[in-house]
Amino acid sequence: MMSATMKWMADAQPEVVAGLVALIDETWNGGHLPPGVLELARLRIGWLLDTARLQAMRLGPVPDDFDSTAAIVTTGSLDDLPIDLRMVITLVDHFVMDAHGIDDATVAELAAVFGTSGAATLVVGMGLAESLERLAATLDFHPVEGPLASSAELFGRSL
Amino acid sequence: MPHLTATEPDDISMLGVLQAHAPTVAAAREGFFAPLSESVSAAPRRPELLRLRAAELTGCTLCRNLRMGAADVDEDTIEAMRGHDLAGFEADDEAALELGDAFCAGGDAEAVERVRAMLGDQEAARLLLALVKAVAFGKVVVALGLEPAQPTITVVG
């Protein structure tokens, strides 16, 4: 029987999962970055990893034009992105494919746009996004579509 | 060299950098790390094997050269794991390492089911959460420029 849900993980390790959920929620929804920035990074990561298990869900509020921007980061030309988002996606690509290629100048540029809080949170968010995508692929997990009230729903949903 | 500095100039820890620039994220990170560390410390061997396996994916030299002393994983075992030579491993450890390979290489739900069947849900979830931490934060260490200039094997605990 395939592992089609993450609920069993929350049942088996409730304190650890609760801690992970709280970390995800603080990172995505703690006001450290403009709405949608981390979600775009997350979708790009799923596309780069060629797993794309979590593309249909939303971990936090996103702007009205999010879907069209999301289409660009997964299928379109990054030249069509505003410069701040292009910078984010360039960082994401480095993070996934060659994290050692991220240098002081890159982080400084991000901090100039999003503040050092935003830059640090984006790095943590990318790490979590990559791990969540890998976890979903390992479990053969396909969550239902739509926004989640909290990432706790990620561990409570099933097919 | 850190791309973001901590409050104390000599502090090159991930926690120090996050506390300086995103303190609520740093606190939330501790809220995840603490219960996981407590769970890992109860039976550290398999999580340690998986932590080192994840370091091969992330390329984190800090992670790769760190040794959790309490896990009692020797260098010959680590080299065998890195060489994917699982012949000398006990069945439980082999199943755990296959889970690590599945996580790092792109998914294999059968590896999850094997671990759940052999070791139980509590252990399977613990190992998966250890992998989530190791991959996520190994990459964070690299991306923030927090690897030591000259990594050496360091034993803690």
Give the proportion of residues in helices of chain B: 55-70%
Structural class of chain A: mainly alpha
| Helix content estimate of chain A | 55-70%
Strand content of chain B: under 5%
- What fraction of residues of chain A sit in β-strands? under 5%
Name some characteristics of this structure.
heterodimer, A: 159 residues, mainly alpha, two-stranded parallel sheet, 60% helix, globular, B: 157 residues, 8 helices, 2 strands, 66% helix, 4% strand
Overview of this protein structure:
The complex is a heterodimer of chains A (159) and B (157). Chain A is mostly helical and 159 residues long. Helix content of chain A is 60%, strand content 3%. Chain A is globular. The mean pLDDT of chain A is 89. Chain B has 157 residues and is mainly alpha-helical. Helix content of chain B is 66%, strand content 4%. Chain B has helices spanning 14-21, 23-42, 45-58, 61-64, 75-82, 91-105, 109-119, 121-143, and strands spanning 66-68, 154-156. In chain B, α2 (23-42) packs across α8. The longest helix of chain B is centred in the C-terminal third of the chain and has 23 residues, at 121-143. Chains A and B meet through α1, α2 and α6 of A and α1, α2, α6, α7 and α8 of B.
